[in-house]
DNA sequence: CTTGAAATACTACTACG
DNA sequence: CGTAGTAGTATTTCAAG
């Protein structure tokens, strides 16, 4: 863990008993910085400083502290799935044959190599895993399904949910 | 749509008949640029130029073209969910009462306002929607479930799949 | 149509008050 | 936190491949 000190708001404004939301605990300026950088991090530091009404060095120090503290995990370019020829998204529920550690490990190792696999999570309930896979169209998904997904190790059942419309898909945390 | 011309590889190397993957169609340098920016876009342009063995101006022009073409949708800071006090992820399958346009519209409008909702998609199959919601812990999810999810308009059934382990969660497209 | 070298304008970063 | 100064970067211009 990292123990960098972060500026806290004077009004803690916590939700319920004994816990303060780390994001809400930030002061007004740090929140404004995060709001901006989550939306567009290609802004220059001087422009960012002007937006949050701070001098450039002070602003830069805050951004660096937010990175060092681990709150900002990284700054990345996002590729448009459609422009990348992967406009189709499929949610996949997976049930394994056996519930052994080896079985899970083998599946997880293989699942990460599935082309276009963006997410893969162990879940509770009627499925063992949920995956989110990006592909070009139904044809290419059908190929992926027949040639790769069905051959993932230890799979008993696969249920595919084709995404018809992406209502919301964000990396942003509200502030 | 944007019609900016992008550098194409001399070897198209397409998959199967009549289609070329837009990402694979890029030349070696553009792919190297995207690979880097998808991983860490906080790199300076001169450092990026050195990495891809190009002069700074030439490199900058390519990056700008990739943005203008729409392939790069944006550059953003990613917040670490755990550090933000939202270390728990839940996948939620939703079935609506009725399948009318009004019913769908009302649900979609409300779903986007659910605190911590990162994704919401219309899907085929036994559910109408899948949502991904980030929250602090099972307690806070229980509160969210009882106070918000159950009151989303037109909901017949909600099934929650708690994520026990995030195997893979990426915004990166392989190149 | 793209590249790289040089020149200029800004920006990031440091030292200090 | 801000001001002032320095170092380094982004960006334009232009000549050349």
TrEMBL record, chains A, B:
SUPFAM superfamilies: Dimeric alpha+beta barrel (SSF54909), Winged helix' DNA-binding domain (SSF46785). The keyword Metal-binding does not apply. Residues 26-87 form the HTH asnC-type domain. Keywords: Activator, DNA-binding, Transcription, Transcription regulation. CDD domains: HTH_ARSR (cd00090). It holds the Pfam family AsnC_trans_reg. InterPro entries: ArsR-like_HTH, AsnC-type_HTH_dom, Dimeric_a/b-barrel, Tscrpt_reg_AsnC-like, Tscrpt_reg_AsnC/Lrp_C, WH-like_DNA-bd_sf, WH_DNA-bd_sf. The keyword Nucleotidyltransferase does not apply. This is Lrp/AsnC family transcriptional regulator. It comes from Paraburkholderia strydomiana.
């Amino acid at each position: 863990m990292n123990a960098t000190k972060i500026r806290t708001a004077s009004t803690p404004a916590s939700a319920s008993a004994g816990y303060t939301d780390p994001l809400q605990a930030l002061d007004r300026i740090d929140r404004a910085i995060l709001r901006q950088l989550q939306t567009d991090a290609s802004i220059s530091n001087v422009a960012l400083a002007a937006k949050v009404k701070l001098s450039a060095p002070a602003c830069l120090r805050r951004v660096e502290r937010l990175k060092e503290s681990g709150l900002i995990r990284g700054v990345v370019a996002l590729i448009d799935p459609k422009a990348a020829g992967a406009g189709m998204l499929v949610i996949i529920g997976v049930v394994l044959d056996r519930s052994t550690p080896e079985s899970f490990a083998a599946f997880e190792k293989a699942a990460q190599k599935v082309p276009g696999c963006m997410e893969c999570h162990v879940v509770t309930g009627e499925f063992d895993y949920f995956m989110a896979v990006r592909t070009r169209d139904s044809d290419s998904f059908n190929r992926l399904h027949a040639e790769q997904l069905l051959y993932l190790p230890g799979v008993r059942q696969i249920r595919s949910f084709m995404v018809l419309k992406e209502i919301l898909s964000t990396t942003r945390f509200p502030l």
